Amino acid sequence: MRFHDVFSFLLRLSAATAAAVTSCGRAAESADLIVTNGYVLTMNDRKDIHENGAVIIKDARIIAIGPASLAAQFTAPKTIDARGAIVMPGMINTHTHASMTVFRGLGDDVPDRLRALIFPLEKALVNRELVYWGGLHGMIEMVQGGVTAIANMYYFEDEVARAAKQLGLRGVFGQTVINFPAPDAPEPYGGIALAKKFAAEYRGDPLITPAIAPHAPYTLDAAHLRIIARESETLNLPVLMHVAEMTDEVATIRKEHNQTPIEYLDAIGLLNRRLIAAHCIFVNDSDIALLKARDVGIAHNMVANIKSAKGVAPALKMFNAGLRVGLGTDGPMSGNTLDIIGQLGYVAKLHKLDNHDRNVMLAVTVVEMATRGGARALHLEDRIGSLETGKLADVILIDRDATHMIPFYDAYSTLVYAAGPRDVRTTIIHGRVVMEDRKVLTVDVADVAAHMRTIAAGISAAVAKGIR
Ligand SMILES: [Zn+2]
User: pTM for the whole thing?
Assistant: First the structure.
C-alpha cells in the first residue's frame, strides 16, 4: 500500500465516522460548491491522490478535501459530478502577452522579428480597444485550456486587467515600460507613471495583482531600471521582465558592464523576491545561485524558446536547486498557443533530449512546475498551486474519457504525454465556475471572436499596405 493509499484510507475512515455523526442528526455544513466523484490530484507536499474524491468550496476557498464520502457532510447550492475526470489545481501561465493574439500567425518564420516586425506593428496598431479584445480572447483560450492564473505584460495593461476581471481569471498584470515611445505612452519610459496609476487602481483586488513590467535589460537604461527597482520596493509591486533571453543582450551587458544579465540586474537592485524573470536561458551556475539567494521567480517558456531557436534554459537544474520555476507560453506570436497543457510534453521531452537521459524531467516534476511551481514563481504559493484546505479554489476538471486518455495508469504521465487543452471540461477560479462542460459562463465567447475578426481584418489591411 503506497503512502497516499494509507492516507486516503485514514481519511475515508474519519469521513465515514463524521458521516455517521451527521446521519445521527448533526446538520450538514453549508458550502458554496461541491466537486465530487473525481480522481483528485492534490499536488500537496505528499502528492496525495484521492482516486474517488471530493473538493468542498466556500467563500472562494477550499474548506475540505478527501474521499467522495466527504461530500455527504456538506450541502451546497451547486454540485459538480466529476465522474470520469481528473480534478486538480489549475495550471499557471507564468509569462504571456495575451493581447498579442491579434497578431498570432503573422511573420512566424522570419529573422529578427522582434525589431523588424513586432515593434513596428505594435507602434502602428496597438490601442486600448485592441488590447482589451485581444487580451480577453487570449485569456478565454487560457481558461478553456485549464489555466487559472497568469502573469501578463503589455501596453494598456489596465485594459487586460479589466478583461480578466470580467472573465474571472486571476493574474499578475504588468504595465510595460520601454525606452521608446510606446502605444500607450508617447514619451520613452512613460510606462512607469502608468504602472503607478494602474497599481493604485487595483491594489487589494482579490483577482488582479498589479505589477510593473520593464521590457528587458536591453530595452531600458540603467538609470530607469534603478527607478523601477525603487518604485517596486516602495509600492511592493511585482516586476515582470524578460531576462537573459537574447545572445546580443548577453554580449552587450558583458561589453558595457563586464557582467552577466543576472549580475547586472543584481547590481541595479532588481534581483529580489518581487522579480518574475521570464526565460533565463543564458544563466551559468553562479547566476543560478544568485537567483536562488535573491528568491527570484522564473518563467520557463519551452515552446516559445524552441520556436525562436534561442536555446534550452537550464530549468531542470534551477528546479532541482530549489528555485521557483513555473511554466509559461510567452505571447501568441512566440508560442502561438496559450494553454499550459500543450507545453507539458515539450518540457519533459526537450530536457530529456538536452540531457541525453530519458530519466530526467519526470512527468510529476513537469506537472509540479505547471501548478505549484507556477504559484511559487509568482510568490502566490500560500494561496494557490495545490488543492489543500485553506487555499483559494482554483480547480480544473480534465476528462479521462477521450480515446487518447485511455487507459489511465499514471495521472502525471497521462497529463504530460497524452492530454491536450481540449480535454479540460471545467475551470473554477476563486470558487467561481468560469467554464463548465466546455462552456465559458462569464463572457460571450462568440461576441469576442467577432470583435477579433474585425480587428484582424484591419491588421491584414495595414500589413498589406506595408506596415513593417
Ligand atoms: Zn515575452
Answer: 0.93
